[in-house]
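# step 3/5: fold
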Amino acid sequence: MNPCFDSQLPDFYHFPPFFTVQPVLSTREKQLGQWRELILKYHTDLRIKTLVLHECPLWKNDSIGRELSHDGIRIVMDDFVRSGHGEWEDPDLRTRCRILWRKPEQLASDIYDWAVANGKINDVCTVYELHSGEDVNGMSFYGVDEELLRRALGILEQQGKCVIFNGDNFSGDGIKFF
C-alpha cells in the first residue's frame, strides 16, 4: 500500500468480511459499492490511471491478514467496469483497467465550467494546457488519461461548446470554447 494513502483507508477496509464476497445480495451490493468507492478514491488521489489486477495493493490487508480471492477480484472489477468507473484496456484478458477518475460526461462538464470561470469562452487553448497547465492544477481533469480527455472534448464538440483544431500531435491540438 502507498504510505501516503494508508491514513485515508476507510474503517470497512479493516473489517475481515470485506475481503470475502458476501453471499446475501443486499450485503454484496453494499460491499461492491464500498469497493468501487475505495478503488476510485485510491486511484484518483494518487493520480493512477491504470489498475493492473495482479499489482493492485488494495486486494490485500496485511494488518488483518486478509486478501481478496482471484474470483473476488473478478467480481469486484466486473462491477467496477459495469458501474462506468473503469474500462478494460485488454477486454479479452481483463488484466488492465483504465480508471475513469470522472466519467467522460462529468469531465466534459468540469472542463466547460473551468472554461467559463476562467474567461476562455471564444478563446483558444491547447490540449496540453488542459491536461498539464498551471491554470488547471487541482482540477479534476489535470493529468487525466489522454484518451479520456479526448472523449470529454469530443462530447463538448458534439454539444457545440467547443471546436477542436488539429495540431502536430494531440497535446498540440487547439480547443476554442463557445
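# step 4/5: annotate
The first helix runs from residue 3 to 6.
# step 5/5: archive (pending)
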